[in-house]
Design goal:
By secondary structure, this protein is α/β, with parallel strands linked by helices. The protein contains 11 helices and 21 strands. The strands form 4 sheets. The chain has a 9-stranded mixed β-sheet with strand order 6-5-7-8-4-9-10-11-12, with helices on both faces. A 7-stranded mixed β-sheet has the order 15-16-14-13-17-20-21. A 3-stranded antiparallel β-sheet has the order 2-1-3, with no helix packed on it. Bound molecules: thymidine-5'-diphosphate (TYD) and magnesium ion. The site of thymidine-5'-diphosphate has 15 residues, from helix 2 and helix 3.
Length: 454
């Protein structure tokens, strides 16, 4: 089967059974190249001895059950991995250049090595001396990690065959090139070939392979998501360059919950864990100000409080501005439309800026009500009652919908000293939190209650 798909477009990664001048998938010219398999390898024991022969689920012997996870001792990293590092797994860590991927992985590699894993760090971007200097700066010069500076896939695979490590870090997948693939390093075809060979190595040898991937302008790793399909786990390392906070987020995980986050702080001596992110995101908050609302969110399995900030001002332009940082622009447009259509509060002629403080990115619909509250508060120049958290989903009809994990959201708010919460009516009663709760059925009621206007 694989044999028939031996032509690949270097621009989009599409596979074809025959060559043509123009790629049918992306329309580019002269991008289709032939690919030959790099290592035929011995008939692999990839998936156990009974590979390809179906067996009843209940028959799988204990020997074929996945071996135990290794924990790094860095709680934030372990959580995002789903509880620790799984053997025979491939992990992709994506992120903008300079965000701290190499730092994170060097620190992680050192911790896993100290936990007993045989660890090799392959750097294609920096010389070994540079990596060693960084390790010194991080206080990890004595860690039992082996360093290799290499970019040729053949060299890397040969080294790994002889070293037989438990953990391999490839920094980065874009620098690795396979000599049998006829395109430039960093191209889709090269990245795909390298990721495929390294993933196969992980499965065959029972090693964990972590690949660093730079994110392209479009926010994807190596153009199309070819690598993401291949690996077991995809993590993104995010953050604003100007902020010291960094968030490691699992967007796909075959061994644990996706959407889990780990929070770190970039310091002069590397990344340090932030065990209580809410405290961090809310730090520096003074008295209540118009336009600022605290949202009680859930990231993965844990609650995180963040501040939503809005600024609404008359526009000098014919087309008012809508600028969003850390939230979805389309969702903002929807909230503005609902406020206008259901509550009669127009935003025409007003510039609207929305910012999630601390460089955090929120994707939950549960933030709708907090966003609406911030927008109204900014527009009316009236602040919300102090020590109040807000959450709830807004439907197009203007109704407020209950959201998941109400109890956890309230508990976290109480833990951080908040005294009241505004939330949708319905859903599970969140009685035990000790906060004073204001429950509302729709947005109009919210507007009337909180801002005394309709
Ligand atoms: P790096 O890990 O090289 O980023 P990436 O591999 O994602 O490109 O980290 C880059 C930034 O981190 C660099 O601008 C300097 C900063 N940094 C610190 O602030 N403290 C440190 O201890 C280290 C090692 C880096
Ligand atoms: Mg790097």
């Amino acid at each position: 089967m694989a044999k028939s798909l031996s032509f690949t477009c270097t621009a989009c990664g599409a596979s074809f059974s025959k060559w043509s001048g123009r790629c049918d998938a992306c329309g580019e010219w002269n991008t289709i190249t032939q690919e030959a398999p790099l290592s035929a390898g011995p008939a692999s024991k990839t998936l156990g001895s009974r590979r390809g022969t179906p067996v009843p689920l209940s028959d799988l012997s204990a020997a074929e059950a996945p071996p135990a996870r290794t924990s790094s001792g860095m709680g934030e990293l372990d959580r995002v991995l789903g509880g620790g590092l799984v053997p025979a797994s491939a992990i992709l860590v994506g992120g903008d250049p300079g965000i701290g991927k190499s730092t994170l992985l060097l620190q992680g590699a050192a911790r896993f090595a100290q936990a007993g894993l045989k660890t090799v760090y392959v750097s294609g971007e920096e010389a070994s001396a540079q990596v060693r200097m960084r390790a010194q700066r991080l206080g990890l010069a004595e860690a039992p990690v082996k360093l290799a500076a290499a970019t040729s896939l053949r060299d890397i695979l040969t080294t790994l065959e002889t070293e037989a490590p438990d953990l391999v870090i490839i920094d980065s997948i874009q620098t690795v090139w396979a000599d049998n693939v006829d395109s430039a390093p960093g191209s889709v075809a090269q990245v795909r070939a390298a990721a495929h060979e390294l993933t196969t190595f992980a499965k065959r040898k029972g090693a964990s392979v972590v690949m660093v991937g730079h994110v392209t302008k479009e926010g994807q790793i190596a153009g199309p998501r070819v690598v993401e399909h291949m690996v077991d786990t995809v993590l993104y390392f995010e953050g604003e360059r100007g902020h010291q906070f960094r968030i490691l987020r699992s967007v796909k995980n075959r061994f644990g919950p996706a959407d889990e986050i780990g929070v770190f702080e970039m310091t002069g001596s590397g990344l340090s864990e932030v065990a209580n992110p809410s405290e961090l995101f809310l730090s520096g908050r003074g008295d209540p100000t118009p336009g600022s609302v605290v949202f009680s969110g859930i990231e993965g399995t844990r609650p995180v409080l963040v501040e939503m900030q809005a600024l609404v001002a008359p526009t000098p332009h014919s087309q008012p501005r809508r600028a969003v940082v850390g939230w979805d622009g389309a969702r903002l447009a929807m909230i503005l439309a609902v406020l206008e259509a259901r509550c009669g509060i127009p935003f025409a002629g007003l510039d609207v800026y929305l910012n999630v403080a601390g460089g955090m990115k929120i994707s939950e619909p549960a933030a709708d009500l907090a966003v609406a509250a911030a927008l109204l508060s900014a527009r009316e120049d009236a602040s919300l009652p102090a020590e109040t958290v807000v959450f709830g989903e807004i439907s197009l009809s203007g109704a407020l919908r209950p959201v998941s994990q109400t109890e956890n959201r309230l508990k976290e708010a109480q833990k951080l000293g908040f005294t009241s919460a505004i939330l949708p009516s319905g859903g599970k009663p969140g009685g035990s939190s000790g906060l004073s709760l204001t429950r509302m059925g729709d947005l109009t009621a919210f507007v009337g209650e909180v801002f005394g206007a309709g």
